[in-house]
Predict the 3D structure of the following.
Amino acid sequence: MPEINLQTKYSSALKQTDGGVHERWRLIKDTMARYGVIAGGLGVIVAVVLIFFYLLYVVFPLFLSATAESVSQYNVPESALGKTVLLEIEEQNQVAARFTDTGQVVFFAVATGKTILTEAVKIPEGAHIVSFSQGSPINEGAVIYGLSDGKAVIVKHQYKITYPNNVRLITPSLKYPLGEQPLVIDESGAALEKIAVRIGDDASTIVAKIGDKIHLSHFEKEKSLFADEAAVTRTDSVLNYAAADVTDILIDKDERNLYLLSSTGRLGWFDIGDKSAPALIQSQNIVETGQKITSVAFLNGDLSLMIGDSSGLVSQWSKVRDKLNHFAMQKIRVFKVSDKAVISIKPEQRRKGFMTVDADGIMGIYHSTSEREMIKERVGNAQSVAAAISPRANTLLVQTEDGKINFWKVDNEHPEVSLSSLWQKVWYESYPKPDYIWQSSSANSDFEPKYSLTPLVFGTLKAAFYAMLVAMPLALMGAIYTAYFMTSRMRQIVKPAIELMGALPTVILGFLAGLWLAPLIEEYLAGLFALLMIIPLGVMLFAYAWHYLPKAIQQQIPEGWEAALLIPVILLSAWFAFTVSVPLEASLFHGTLRDWFKNEWGIGYDQRNALVVGIAMGFAVIPTIFSIAEDAIFSVPKHLTVGSLALGATPWQTMIEVVLLTASPGIFSAVMIGLGRAVGETMIVLMATGNTPVMDLSVFQGLRTLAANIAVEMPESEVDSTHYRVLFLAALVLFMFTFVFNTLAEIIRQRLREKYSSL
Amino acid sequence: MMKSWFKSGAPWIWLNAAAVSTSLIMIVGVLGLVTVRGIGHFWPSQVMQFNYMEEGKQPQIIIGEKVDTSITPAAMAKSTGFKMAENEETLVQYLIKTGNRDVTGSDFRWIQERNVKDQSEPADIMVVERREWGNFYGQLLEVKENGKTIATGEQAWPVVQARIEEALAVFKEIAHLEKKEIGAINYGLERLRLKQRKLELKNRLDDAAKQQIAEEKAGFQEQYKQYQAQLAELYQKIRRDRLVAKTENGSTLEIPLAKVVRAFKPNTMSLFEKIAHYGTKVVEFLADDPREANTEGGIFPAIFGTVMMVMMMSVIVTPFGVIAAVYLREYAKQGFTTRLIRIAVNNLAGVPSVVYGVFGLGFFVYILGGNIDQLFFPESAPAPVYGTPGLLWASITLALLTLPVVIVSTEEGLARIPSSIREGSLALGATKLETLWLTVLPMASPAMMTGLILAVARAAGEVAPLMLVGVVKLAPTLPLDGNFPFLHLDRKFMHLGFHIYDVGFQSPNVEAARPLVYATALLLVLVIVGLNLAAIIIRNNLREKYRALEG
């Protein structure tokens, strides 16, 4: 756009002092219009700033640290009924349960500590409780009591929600999922010193330590079509394991893996897929010598063990598959929680977070994969005895030694995102090594979303790189020729034609790329490579031949029409390239070039790959670069070129040494703007790639860009969820990317315009 | 010789020229490709009958249209697993559209030329376009009315044509009743429900209001019963006739005429008949609703949605764009502020369109729309009215996106107006506003027009932001209809560009849908190229005019 300077300001000849209502009204209107227009003009800046700040406003909560505040503190309800062995909060944060070592369950109001209901677990006479454990914190809410006479009692705590008079009322109750009769675990009647249970829909597993033996009992319901009462088959086995010092027993939710932990720091991992023949897979020491295991818990999903030790470390151990497909427990990451022993670890139920309480009474909330410490606070005035975190992880209870229960509220919305989890390699559970992974959703409910933006940024840059590889030479060379060598008559047609190319909807380019070009390239891959060699060769040959044609023919077509002459030449070369490539491919590569790449180089081939995107997006970017670069070259002041030519330089020397040098800032800004366009292009990449977020440099592999990712996932993401905010972050990254390129380009262009006008 | 030629730099110039030629070939190639494929879709092609015998299998008859041919060299075919004889140099395969998806399970199949024993174009092959299961190819055997045969053999064809006409007329009536009349009743009932809820919320639902609502409801229900009776009658009528046809493998198939769109015999059609057929197909494409999950029929709702959205957007973007341009050219002192604004304009132009979509979804839909719902439509909660993507938000989002186009174009127009004109007006005592309004802006109006046209072209082709702020693959109702308040800004709509994406990539039967996508793409390209050419022509005329003014 030519710049016409309007530095001089005009003002009306109408005198301000002229009287009359009409005149005054005219002046008022004029002033109002002035302010209106100024507001409108500045509105453009406001719009840009608004977009930026709105994106920032949505993204910002991701990086806020969590907060926790004390709501109330009250005496332990019914403290006469025994010591607390377990605290639990139900889903709505209204009712909590306190399980005591005497077999009593006290339900109380979370906020006030008022007792709602006290119920005793049915323990047979003559026996007393020796061991206790929680089956799973999630859903079932089952606990097991191991008795002194070799029997065990399993109890579920349940909460029924009713709405009398439109007010929510939660009624707690106890239930016996395997019947009120205690289960006989040990026929000889020896005490169950340690116990663990897992209750599934159709099968339940109980593992107990009796003396120095570990005993496993499995109960499976045989579903029968006709009988109402399902028959239960029982499998018993004794584990071959030196169990004298086992302190903790954990069974995963599939009832396939059993973990035994000894106070000395030994972890024994059993495969209990076959309940009649449990197999020891691994037995290893998992804490530093001299340290002890002080607490242990599954992380949500039961794939990792969180192990707290006496030195204040919490380490995450998970099954990792090595190259030979063998699984072994490995330490994935470690949190330094405290200097004192970690006495309790409570996992969150919906995320991979966990709460720790150390011997000093300091509570911490962490998130495993993002490796963030969300909260660290002292709760209460004395050492902690028991702690609970609610299913939604927004409240917690801590009982302290001085007989108080502390009720805290937690605001911890987005623990799973941190700078390291967004941009660095993260070692996810059941992955063999740390990696960059984007996987935002899956059908599985305890699936952990993986938000690494790195593969998306990589994909974006890869697509942009190949697009620029196609577009830059074509657009810049085209701009040089059109602006400087082409006759003006042809230029009048060529320039709008190429700009029209930029107006083509990208959805059409993407559609053609995905459904027409991609299969075509797959079939004629060799032809495409032949094209790259044969077209320049053909052009050079033609040019050389033209040089030696008789002058009479040469003069028929004046200079500046070379491009038109070359059209048939290029078409012919292209046709030749494709015809030659077919037999060549067959004889040189023994079949197709694709197979050859795969067999010889191990390079796989996706039908919708970076090559297709490069060509299609290159097509979309050419007009942008061409148009701006052409303007920059065309507006190089004529006296510079004329001077150079007069001094004896050839037109090409003038071009390289004078014109390009002068116009280089403009060309640079053209490339910047083109790059900005390639980075943000959505539809072409969406349609022409497989949208797989892989990090592979190969030109034959697919990719997923930030923009395509937003288009694919945004409509399905829940408002204000972490996923939603991460997608906004992706948009913000795109915005900043293009903001930098565009601002830079515009400033350079403004400078260039001043330079030209001064020349 | 060669060396001096290289030294002169001529080869490099030729190479640069080649870049321009390549770009030109690419653009012409793309336009040509879309045109050829898009135009071809509606032409009734010949239906072939192949005698086909695969090695070691029974001979079979295949009836269908030849859609595609692929020629593979022997070596390549071998490596992909075909058995090739020694003397064969190439493997020729045809893609045949065999239709009859309800019989064979697929619409298309590849056959190898070497297995074709003979091929012919029998005159009696009939193509039936159906509302379900795609095309049918086969021979007409007889026509049945209520299960009784009324015509067979030669006589059956004219009878079928007449009966299809009848059935189509009935179908049209049914569609009118269901969509228009009953649709209006449902809309009225929904409004009544909302009215009642509104009164409830305001605690003003007294007996009088209740009675009034009940009466209105009864009125609607009465009407509904009437239509229901009419519909039952029509349905009975449309279900009366069936045609019986023979498929390629000899089995017979009964097709209810209620499901038939048209039947024709392409192999016996004359050129004029074909042209007429082509014409009706084009009209259907432009004016009808889509059928079979958007893979057949027309794209009228998509055209309508695009036009509505673009019009709404124009109304919003023009004043803002023009005001910003006027500020930059006529009011602002050239300096830091204008530089900043120019940077802002360039950024608005350069921000990826999908970011606008994200912004539109978050800011317009959830924040603005959510608040509007709370303030003005509490009765429809929890269903959102404006708090969900829709036409209004799509238009505003695209207005923001196309703002720089209008600004840049208008500014250029303003810059070209000679300052003598402004000076003259001001010297005669006009205020700045009057100068602008009465002389400058009218002169710059073609430039604004250019900007607007370019903005419309941009908006018509944009898809990514629309996917987030209001476009759907199938909208049950148009955003403009006969029910008060006629223009429904909260409704979702269909869009040509999104239609291409959706049908081309998300539909279950991509192969069958592809010709339709090409046709849609052609339409979109025609619209956009047309708009751009118009803009270029207006701009060039404008330049000529001002040159004359200055001279």
User: Anything to note?
Assistant: The radius of gyration of chain A is 37 Å. The longest helix of chain A spans residues 21-59. Chain A touches chain B through 131 residues (CB under 8 Å).
